[in-house]
């Protein structure tokens, strides 16, 4: 757009494996990094520490609950989802972990907004760390703000793809 190569009304085709189904919609991938800070202590005296992994666990479980409670269920995209793709933390088995980091992928659905996803992360962290006194949480978004997308069923591009698949495969399904 900045360079003038495409205009705001240009079509975009994302070519990914789809089992020859025409996908006229795409969930909005939103990636987040969550950091929990605790306090290091020896496992023989865990009450002297603040368990960052325990706090992260509470935050992530709450986030999954909040996403599952969303009322959205688009006919093509389905409900919003969350995937916990990576977790690291702690220093060794006999130490209360003073840090934990997770990377998560929220797939937003229509009509969910990026701001709403950010608010869900904020709420999950606030409510999760409340279960582990002394824990502190922060987050940042990784990558772009990408909301869900959906083409109108009467889009000429969508219709052209459906006709092409029909000719080659003999049947067409819109997913």
Overview of the structural elements:
This protein is an alpha+beta fold and 175 residues long. It is built from three helices and eight strands; from the N terminus they run βββαβββαββα. The protein has helices spanning 52-68, 114-129, 156-169; strands spanning 25-26, 28-37, 41-42, 81-89, 95-96, 99-108, 136-142, 149-150. Strands 4-6-2-7 form a four-stranded antiparallel beta sheet, covered by helices on one side. A two-stranded antiparallel ribbon has the order 1-8. α1 (52-68) crosses α2. The longest helix has 17 residues, at 52-68. The chain is elongated, with a radius of gyration of 21 Å. The mean pLDDT is 91.
List the helices and strands and how they pair.
Blueprint: E1 25-26, E2 28-37, E3 41-42, H1 52-68, E4 81-89, E5 95-96, E6 99-108, H2 114-129, E7 136-142, E8 149-150, H3 156-169
Antiparallel strand pairs: 1-8, 2-6, 2-7, 3-5, 4-6
Helix pairs in contact: 1-2
């Amino acid at each position: 757009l900045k360079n003038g190569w495409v205009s705001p009304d240009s079509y975009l085709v994302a070519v990914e494996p789809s089992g020859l189904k025409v996908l006229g919609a795409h969930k909005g991938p939103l990636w987040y990094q969550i950091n929990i800070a605790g306090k290091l202590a020896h496992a023989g005296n865990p009450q002297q520490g603040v368990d960052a992994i325990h706090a992260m666990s509470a935050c992530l479980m709450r986030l999954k609950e909040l996403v599952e409670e969303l009322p959205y269920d688009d006919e093509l995209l389905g409900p919003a989802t969350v995937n916990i793709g990576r977790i690291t933390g702690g220093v060794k088995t006999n130490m209360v972990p003073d840090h934990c980091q997770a990377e998560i992928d929220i797939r937003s659905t229509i009509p969910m907004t990026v701001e709403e996803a950010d608010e869900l992360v904020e709420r999950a962290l606030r409510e999760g760390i409340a279960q582990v006194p002394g824990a502190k949480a922060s987050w940042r978004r990784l990558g772009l703000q990408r909301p869900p997308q959906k083409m109108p069923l009467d889009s000429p591009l969508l219709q052209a793809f459906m006709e092409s698949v029909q000719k080659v495969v003999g049947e067409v399904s819109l997913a």
